[in-house]
Amino acid sequence: MRQEAPVVRLYDPTLRQPVWVVTRYKDAVELARDPRFTKDVKKLPEDSPHRQMRSADMEAISRHMLSADPPDHTRLRSLVSKAFTPRRVEELRPRIAAIASQLLDTAKDPGSMDLLDAFAFPLPITVIAELLGVPVEDRDQFRDWTTTIISPPSEGNLEPLREAGRQFIQYFQQLLARRRADPRDDLLTALMSAEEQGDRLSPLELMSMLFLLLVAGHETTVNLIGNGVWALLNHSEQLERLRANPALIESAVEEMLRYCGPVETTTQRWAAQDAEFHGQVIPRGETILASLLSADHDPEQFPEPERFDITREPNRHIAFGFGIHFCLGAPLARLEATIAINLLLERLPRLRFGVDPSELRWRDGILVRGLQRLPVAF
Ligand code: HEM
Hints:
Order of helices and strands: EEHEHHHHEHHHHHHHHHEEEEHHEE
Bound molecules: protoporphyrin IX containing FE
Radius of gyration: 21 Å
Number of domains: 1
Strand order of the largest sheet: 1-2-8-5-3
Shape: globular
């Protein structure tokens, strides 16, 4: 597709919609910067199926920065951007290391585990729950809801997704009421006070922000750790290099993001007007997205793109997207992955696949790239 049909109209069988897919690196970067493609569903015609899908009860989790254009996007993002700068995130290092270490203590005994369930999942969800001020004990509950919400709907049936959305909203309404009576030093309390000032954050925007941070904060980093370990175990010479020199971890994580990043495609954008893009006319209202993994394997940008090289330089991948919606959580995800993977290698010197790698299965859907399970032995 990169060579012959770099902007191609496909059919998404789960959404039952046509979707334009951009596969070249340069075009993906250009798409992210192009204001003719909107994230705001309200700019589409009234009868657009994308507007219809956004039922009234889903509004409360849909009014977040990733579905907004400026100026709303700018306002929403600025409310939380300070909490996610590399400097602020670096302050979390000792706590992240302690959580990771504790998880390994618990998981270590039998000599085998599903790396995703026992380690890669609980780490980021615990970190984001603590940062927000959400009870960590409820993390399995969030996992169920968010997995349902981001999974491709089976046979186009959106009801399970809506039900999970409703439960999420109910849970947070109760939590917000409790926190109002008992404010704390956490992101939840800070966002609530922005909401109380009215002009900065509406009640729907507050709920949607919490939803976005929780979902974005745990379906992604889990799979960066999982996919990264999968890549290392598949490339023993790279694994040995990293074991011999743990300081390579930062560049190793960049290569994991490029080679097997956890977000396969961007979220949807829509043509706000008929728009020509690299020789194709995208009609008003139709969906367009970029395949980030294809862009990050584009030989025009990365020499020998199929080679996994933990010292690759330069490595300007777009696994975190590009432009104004560039991932807010990138510094946090990077820090969590570097700590988690180095700790695994240090504590488990005999780490290896627990099943034949050919038995591993990837999850369905085009948004998240991740394994269903990752059994390991050590
Ligand atoms: C390895 C882990 C992660 C990857 C690969 C990733 C990837 C991405 C990508 C590709 C986008 C842009 C989507 C688009 O333009 O359509 C994005 C946006 C976003 N991410 Fe992440 N993400 C990760 C982790 C996180 C974490 C840990 C958080 C936070 C807690 C987070 C919060 C966000 C937010 C809030 C946005 C929307 C930003 C905006 O609209 O301005 N992400 N992420």
